[in-house]
Amino acid sequence: MNALENLRRICDKYLPGQFEIQIIDISKEKDQAVKYQIIAIPTLIKTAPNHPRTILGDLADTEKVLKILDINV
Description:
CATH superfamily: Glutaredoxin
Number of domains: 1
Distance between the termini: 25 Å
Low-confidence stretches: none
Order of helices and strands: HHEEH
CATH topology: Glutaredoxin
Largest sheet: 2 strands, antiparallel
Number of strands: 2
Mean pLDDT: 90
Helix content: 25-40%
């Protein structure tokens, strides 16, 4: 839940109205875990725009998350 709260906080601040969050429960949707090669949880996968990016962990380090997601502030 910490990762989701941190993600929402970051998106609300830096991408207001420009994001969509999809939560996948890999215990119920194993095909999605295989498709996206999820090997640890929590995992954030940015699929658009530009190149896909993957981040593991609770997303508490805002600067790191912004850098990996190519969000310029």
